Amino acid sequence: MHFIKKCPECESTNLFSNKDRGEVVCKDCGLVIEDKMIDFEQEWREFDGDDEQSKRRAGASLSYTQFDQGLGTEIGQKGDLYKLEGKEKNKFFRLRKWQYRISTAIERNLKLALAELKRVSSYLKLPRSVEEESARIYTLAVQRGLVRGRSMESVVAGALYAACRRHEVPRTLDELSEASGIEKKEIGRTYRFVTRELGITILPSNPADYVARFASSLRLNAETQSYAVQILERAQKSELTSGRGPTGIAAAALYVSALIHGEKRTQREVADVAGVTEVTIRNRYKELLEELKLEKEIKKIKKMKKE
DNA sequence: AAGACGAAAGTGGTTGA
DNA sequence: TCAACAACTTTCGTCTT
Question: What's the start-to-end Cα distance of chain A, in Å?
Fold first, then answer.
């Protein structure tokens, strides 16, 4: 399907291929590697009428990041005017005026919001699939009048946050907050409100989804990273993860893993990239040691150092 | 001197009466 | 609607390397 094995930006092999969108995304740094990948899937032909819905492909793809999904008709494109005379010309102006009127607040709001959405999304280097998803969420929110009483920007941020989690490339609220300039709690609030109102299922985010990104910004190697994921799996079985902030757990697992693999990072360093405090890391770290009997391994490392 | 550790008090959100 | 509660943060003093 695709031949790229490594992310050109961060050398990560943790790539995610989204065939529907024709793109490959680096789960670590969020870089979209191949945007216009050719669809190599078999080209279907219609043999009878029943197939036409499922197999026919025609026209430009729908895109929610165009405010009218690329399907609108503009009245009054440049050349048109010269072809018309007299009554026709009047009709033309009437129609254009009419269209102007029905460009309601909703549509103008959407245009503005989608611009903002693209800005934030490119700042965070989010994959295109997430951008589309969040645009869809935002559009739905507008249609249900959920933006009323809230700032447009905060709803955009909330939609992005939701889309990130659904696509398993979660960003923290802090990151969203920094990119959008909206307060963290405000984003959280609108996020909860919008997802609840739209009935979007929010699967609790998996700590392992954060590991790759944190590890890459800490410059930890692949073994350390995969060991951290193993730790997380064991932690999940011991029910250490429920109710806790996923970022804190991911950070602690990485911290332990780095320790064991001789790539020690300070608690502060790990805490900073994960957006939690050292204290939280310490607490999770302590729990991990107790539950998973990792003390032995830590002691081994210490002994090896002395020798 | 820097990092790790832990206690205590404060914050914002959830839950259950 | 309010109080109890859990998770997390901030701050700060102490111990370890």
Answer: 49
